[in-house]
Amino acid sequence: MQDDSYYYEPxxxxxxxxxxxxxxxxxxxxxxxxxxxxxxxxxxxxxxFFNAFNYIPPIIGFASIGHKDSLSNIEQxxxxxxxxxxxxxxxxxxxxxAAVAPEVDEFALAGLTPAPSNLIExxxxxxSPVSFECRKTQIIQLQSAAGDAVNTWLVLxxxxxxxxxRRLLVDGVYQTAAAEPILRGGGPADYFRIExxxxxxxxxxx
Length: 206
Hints:
Pnp Oxidase, Chain A; three-stranded antiparallel β-sheet; 14 strands; seven-stranded antiparallel β-sheet; mainly beta; single chain; globular; Split_barrel_FMN-bd
């Protein structure tokens, strides 16, 4: 009987045109992170590996593959903001991921407006309809199964302030699709969007 499953062991290589891992684990929400250095230099960068990890208190996290500016800034100040990446802001978000020197302000590079946060010194993206003000809870360097250090750091932060465009709240319920969030797929350039007709509901058993 023919095996229709393609099998590979990541340590030996995938043998495909492009690593399928991040296409399989996707699409994923985008960690569009604003931060500020101890010297006051602003930074804005999107991270492909991002998600929410706890409800009460709300904790979100992103993985920095390499010791990048966002990670350095959060180590220095303990603060960051997550900004929702949306379809109207897709090009600006993409501009903010340019590989530039630490002294370059990606807000200016992407033509975006820094808006003051309420509880922390790091600004929000004014054009984004949703932002989370966060304080660092943990920074964890990842390890392989063998215990070897990986050049990736998981940054976790508690959400201490939430900004939501009022148009996205209908009878007190946040309308996910109305915000037009974009999601990261696989490959070098794949993104997805959420539309209202993609919604379906299931109630938990019991």
